[in-house]
Write a structure and sequence with these properties.
239 residues, alpha+beta, two-stranded antiparallel sheet, 5 helices
Length: 239
């Protein structure tokens, strides 16, 4: 994992965005996920009526080969690889990380000239969580967007007022990187991320256990929502 200095993001008037909002969920606009656009983008936009600085976002691919082919298309435009490609988390963290193989994935991260990060992932096995996400939501779906903020706790208050609920009882704080995952009722995840100088990673191995908890909570919330919808549908049918 390389350590490159990220530039400070400043808002300007360039607000074209890779993201489309659809019934509470985010999808990619194919026009704006090309190397030509992302390597010139400021990583500033509006999400859910909030002006934000994007720290990173995740694009999913059916296979590691397709992931790496997409990454290769960025080479002529000045993007740099800062994570991977490799199998997450077992080939990223030296300690024995207790994460079930269902949550493993192929991972690669590209640093754009403006300082934003584009994370690429792919299933490591048929039927794993990433594969199920693709089957349910499609390849245009945005798994999560990370917003770079100055204070995670303060930012969380803003997003909780937008009906995003934390997926853990407190932020994951590894010292040089603080992360907190929140989810709205539609199932969309927003990550709030606070960086210390010199840290350009999209995760910290000390935070991995909390990431696992967040993923498990997300699955339980979605399962509960599906059950609730089914019950209401049955009640309506019986009336």
């Amino acid at each position: 994992m390389k350590n490159l200095n990220l530039q400070t993001l400043k808002f300007d008037r360039h607000l074209d965005s890779p993201f489309l909002e659809n019934n509470g969920l985010l999808e990619f606009n194919p026009k704006f996920i090309t190397p030509e656009f992302l390597t010139t983008w400021t990583f500033e936009t509006h999400l859910y009526d909030e002006q934000v600085a994007i720290d990173h976002f995740v694009i999913t691919f059916p296979s590691r080969t397709q992931l790496e082919n997409y990454a290769e298309s960025f080479r002529p435009f000045g993007a740099k690889t800062v994570e991977g490609p490799d199998l997450f988390p077992i080939n990223f963290c030296s300690d024995n990380i207790n994460i079930p193989s269902d949550l493993w994935l192929h991972l690669m991260t590209l640093l754009m000239p403006a300082g934003g990060l584009v994370v690429l992932d792919a299933p490591h096995a048929a039927g794993d969580q990433t594969h199920r996400f693709q089957q349910t939501r499609g390849l245009k779906a945005v798994h999560h967007v990370a917003l770079r903020v100055e204070n995670v706790q303060n930012a969380a208050t803003i997003w909780q007022n937008k009906n995003f609920k934390p997926l853990s009882d407190r932020p994951l704080d590894a010292g040089s990187l603080t992360q907190w995952f929140l989810q709205n009722p539609a199932g969309q995840i927003i990550e709030l991320i606070e960086r210390r100088p010199g840290n350009n990673a999209t995760f910290d191995c000390k935070n991995i256990a909390g990431l696992r908890l967040s993923e498990q909570v997300r699955q339980r919330i979605r399962s509960a929502d599906v059950t609730d919808v089914s019950q209401k549908s049955e009640e309506t049918r019986l009336k």
